[in-house]
Each structure stands twice: as C-alpha cells, then as structure tokens.
Amino acid sequence: MASASRGIAAGRVSRLWAAGASSQRPAGALPPTNWIIKSNDLAEIAATGSNPGSFQYVGCGGRSDPLPCHAGQVHIYTNFYSLRSAVEGGLTGPVIIDYETWAYTPPRQAARPDYFIRRTQRLVAQANAHGQDIVTIETPGGKRSESHLINEDVTAVQAGSPIVEIQSQFAVAHPRTKFRPFVTRAISAIRKVSKTVTILVGLATDAGGTPATAREMVRSYRIALQLHAAGFWLNAAVWLAPRGKGCAPLGCPQTAVTFLTDIGAISS
C-alpha cells in the first residue's frame, strides 16, 4: 500500500512539472527536473541581470522567505500547525516541509523532528484521502549530526513523503572528502526504504557563510547525479558578518549564475 501511494505521488509530481515546463529553456540544457530554489534567492540571481532559467519548484512564504508567494510557487512550511491550518483550509498541490533547528520552527517541534514529520505525513494522507491531492517535499535539517539528518530523511520516506531533500549543502566546498561520503550514506539509507522516492541534494553558494566556488558546486552536483539523485535545491543566502565571509554578507548570486551556466541550465 505504501509503495503504491508513493508511485501515485511521483506521477502527480511529473504532471505538475509537465504543466509548468518552460519553452524558453536553451538548446542543450539539462531538463530542470526537481530543481528547487526559494523566491528570495531567485530574486538575488535575477538582480545580477542574468536570466536565472527555469526551476520546477520556487519556494515562497513562510518565515524562511520574506517575499510573498505568487501563482505557481510552492509554499514553505516551517511549522506543523501552520501546515495543518492550511490543510484544513483546503490546501492542494505541492508544499515544502522545512522543520529545522532554527528560529522559524517552534522549539518543541524542532526537538522532536521525527514525531512531527510523521504527523505531517499522516495529515497529508488523510487530506489526500478526501481528494486534496497534496505532494510534500520533505527537507529536514538544522544543526544536527550527519546521522540525525539521514535518519530524518529516512523517517520522511517511511512516513510516505514522495520527495526528500538531503541537506548536503554544508559539504559542497569539499566534493570528494565530505559531499560524496555523506550523500552516498544518505542515498543508501533512503533507498533501503524506497527504490522510487525522488531524492534531491542541497547545494549552496555559501553554506553557513563560507563561500564555495562554482567549480566545487559543479563537482558536487556531478557526484550527486552519479549517485542517482534527481535534482537539487540551490541556496544563495545572505550571511551577515562576522559569520558571513567573502561574498556571503551580500549573498553570492554570481556564483549561482556561473554554476547554472556551467551545468547548462541557463545560457551564457
């Protein structure tokens, strides 16, 4: 029963992408399957004067993105009870679930991530049983050990989420020594639960305030594809000094542009 429901959800995801696919993608570009970015990061990239290309999901709203949501964008939920209110109000379509150890998730929920991940999937399953057709993109993370991050992704898949993201962005600046071992462990653990769930990886221009190069990001992404990840979540956050170094205090959108150009996602 569980594996069948995941297959149905994956089909919905494919249809959602087919409905929103851009006809403006440059020839030879990789299809933006399961590429995610937040609307504020997308705005930073667009402010460079470059065409940021097409993303399947543009996250918005919630406390982690101050920009308002627009039609076709995907709401980010950092609080289970906000999600529940939206579901009770008739929510449909894809949603991003982002419960972390940060100010945007209430401490009680951040302290019990697995419990609230399971509650989220039960809530969604009940709503879908009544025809709401909600697709969750689970992206558990925060200041936890690698083992805890992996366990939370496994919990999300066990509970029925059709899409999970591995919060691997902290390792992007070290493609072979940190990124590959962590993502390999995570994907292996997730695949023991489901052979069909869509797995994304986190990529960042400046995770934690320390910039990565576009070359390091490309190498990490290629490793993720070799490990059969389906796509990525791209982050180009602003990290204020003293934590933010190099370009990080202003965000590093030009690094994101170079990365997207190098992988063929946008024209040079």
Number of domains: 1
Shape: globular
Task: Report how far the terminal alpha carbons are from each other.
Answer: 46 Å
What is the radius of gyration? 17 Å
Question: What would a concise description of this structure say?
Answer:
The chain has about 270 residues and is an alpha/beta fold.
What features would you describe in this structure?
The protein is of the alpha/beta class. It has a single domain, classed as Alpha-Beta Barrel (TIM Barrel). It contains nine helices and eight strands. It has an eight-stranded parallel barrel with strand order 1-2-3-4-5-6-7-8, surrounded by seven helices. Helix 3 runs parallel beside helix 5. The longest helix is centred in the N-terminal third of the chain and has 19 residues.
List the keywords:
single chain; 8 strands; 268 residues; globular; alpha/beta
Write the layout of secondary structure elements.
Layout (H helix, E strand, L loop, with lengths): L1 H19 L15 E3 H8 L10 E4 L13 E4 L2 H9 L4 E5 L9 H4 L2 H17 L4 E5 L7 H14 L3 E4 L8 H17 L6 E7 L9 H13 L4 E5 L17 H10 L6
Helix pairs in contact: 2-9, 3-5, 5-6, 6-7, 7-8, 8-9
